[in-house]
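Think of the structure tokens as a kind of shorthand, similar to the way a musician reads notation: each symbol stands for something richer, in this case the local conformation of the backbone. In the example below we present two proteins back to back. Begin with the first one, reading the sequence and then the tokens, and try to describe in your own words what changes along the chain.
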Amino acid sequence: MMGHSHALSGVVGWMAIVPLVQGTEFWGVRFDLGPGEIIAGSLVCAGAALIPDLDHKSSTITQTYGFVTRALSALLNWMFGGHRNGTHSLLFALLMGALTQVLALWSPLAVQIFVFLLIGIAMNGLGFGMDKNRTAAEIINALGTAGITLALYTSGTDYSWIGLAVAFGCLLHFAGDMATEMGVPLLWPVSKYRVGQNIGFKTDGKIERNVVTPMLTIAIILLSVYLFPWREILPEA
């Protein structure tokens, strides 16, 4: 799938699991998710849902932070055997989740920086940045990303779940790509068999543009109405 579809799936995926994990504990992480955690998790998941495509030189995430992400893209492409190989495996999702969780345990400041980067990636994926006036779009993206990150920080958002959210975002990416013709090698490097190959729809084809993307957008609206206490937010008439 294209970057915007992956980003949308990250938002939908996180919002969809909130009612299922709320109040539970998983791998030592307690899920007490308020509005801040729901918003933060949605954006973190959206950004993480683009990470596997760092193996492609033209992907949304590779173009997000200029030389830094382009260099990282070249490195991951070399390490994991090209596009839609190792970075699209369960091993990669596990590694990303584990590394992020270690980062969270190591330094709260590092987590805030990583959240800022992921939100910026998510904003690009959702369409805030890839514009005809690239410079203006990047400035707006940076200001919006900084504002959201600061608002989440000042509201005391808890990021103890961030490693799981990043791994989940990667898994959502795999699910999206399994629905396309190329499929993904989930068991790499043990097996290079591509799950979903030659079965699904064409990337950026009519089905993705006219069915998948609109359905994901509608799902975000419906889940927002369900999850957030709008009667408490909006003033009474």
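Once you have a description of the first chain, move to the second and do the same.
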Amino acid sequence: MSKTSGTKVFTQTEIDHLTQEEGRSIVVFEGEVYDATDFKVTHPGGPKFIDDYVGKDMTEVFYEEEHTKIALRMLKDMKIGTLETSTSDQMSQDTVTSHSRMGEIEGEEWRMKVDPKLGTVWQVFSNLNHEEYNNFINDPKHLTRPDDEHRMFATSWIEFFSRTPWYHVALFWTPIASYKLYEGSFELTPLEFILTCIFAIICWTFAEYALHRFVFHMEVYMPDNAYFRATHYIFHGIHHAFPMDPDRLVFPIIMAYFIWNVFHVIWINTLPGIMVNTFTGAFIFSYMGYDLGHYYFHHSQPLKITEYRKKYHMYHHYKDPDNGYGITTSFWDKIFGTELVMNKKKEN
């Protein structure tokens, strides 16, 4: 390995050694060398898409997949050097880099107004105006070590309670939903019980869509006010700003419990009394499927059956946050004209 003007220059042999002998996930992009070892486990598309190009040049496929500025920033943070090339290779590389988009991520000083390590809620409240806030949350910051790289609050004990591991959802809601279904099974006939469950699932998918579009994404119409920005950030903005933070993926129990109580009052006043328990239990289980599925889409190599749903949701985060509000289904997106067009090129 040699150095030129302080930049490490890697030969292909050295890259092969790092990948084969040391198990590093080294990739080449536009003649530069990047170490994606830590990044690949949190890659939005799953680690397979990195593994397929370990030790190889990924420039062509990177542009074929229409990556945005967000991906360029991630790459910049992973750079470890430059690939040594022959004269003929260099001529080919000059052609590639002449069309490089890396210059697109220069001069973005607004991104420096919030330091993720110092408590982001207060900085969002005090440092960002309305336009800067929208830019900040719709420009995902990728984390490879969330516990070290990001805090919501500077105060440690508040920060501790701001985190919600995914399994809290299952531990808290499963007994409640199970009991409601148990009670409901004595109030309805088997056919009524099944039909009520199906009705509850359909209602949840609509509630999921409506909450995501009109409440979680209220940044598009909320007042230009620091308190609104901070509140929105706590509820959902943080998830778009740091979409791979595992402790900010499922809904905090206290907030979910408040929303459930609102829904429960509606159900009691609109549904026949004998349906309420069954509907409640099925609705909660549907919510659990959504929240745990949401975590799975962000932190898994998906099964074939769920691959499209993961890609659809990642497209919402990284390319088109103004569409694609359905997580478990695209049905309501199709009905209300917000379905994602997956091959649509959209710059951030």
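Compare your description with these statements about the second chain. The longest strand covers residues 79-83.
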